[in-house]
TrEMBL record:
Pfam families: BUD31. GO terms for cellular component: spliceosomal complex. It comes from Theobroma cacao (Cacao). Transmembrane segments: none annotated. Belongs to the BUD31 (G10) family. One of its GO terms (biological process) is mRNA splicing, via spliceosome. The lineage of its organism: Eukaryota, Viridiplantae, Streptophyta, Embryophyta, Tracheophyta. InterPro entries: BUD31, BUD31/G10-rel_CS. The keyword Kinase does not apply. This is G10 family protein isoform 1.
């Protein structure tokens, strides 16, 4: 969870531009955490949280690497303050992981037969066309999709 804004932290230039979006995503995150998960499977209760964390990280990644709208200093500040996932962004920079949904999908220890998640399989190679990841609810994050 990102830290609460105080006077102790010096915010870099450009923070005013991204702050409203990050505050909106924080509000959505709080809503998702409070939302009751009655009638859902145990794993489905965490899916909205994973989705919002992915959105927040992707937003900062796109602003810095794709659109070049924020400075390196502001980007590093966001990573240090916990607004984005540093490890997930590091994977997005690598070939083949550009659309990765979460880090649990590529960890072999969390899956049967020490492989990756079914959402990492390209859609044209799947036996079932509609598949949801058990960990985060992703329907397909393979680079070839």
């Amino acid at each position: 969870m990102p830290k609460v804004r105080t006077n102790w932290v010096k915010y870099p230039d450009g923070w005013e531009l991204i702050e409203p979006t990050l505050r909106e995503l924080d509000a959505k995150m709080r809503e998702a955490e409070i939302d009751p998960h009655d009638g859902k499977r145990k794993c489905e209760g965490l899916w909205p949280i994973f989705k919002i964390a992915h959105q927040r990280s992707r937003y900062i990644f796109d602003l810095h690497y794709k659109r070049n709208e924020i400075s390196k200093e502001l980007y590093e500040f966001c990573l240090e303050q916990g607004y984005a996932d540093r490890n997930l962004i590091a994977k997005w920079k690598k070939l083949g992981y550009e659309r990765l949904c979460c880090l649990r999908c590529i960890q072999p220890r969390d899956h049967n037969f020490s492989t990756t998640c079914v959402c990492r399989v390209p859609q044209h190679l799947r036996e079932e066309k509609v598949v949801e990841c058990v960990h985060c609810g992703c329907r397909g994050c393979a680079s070839g999709d």
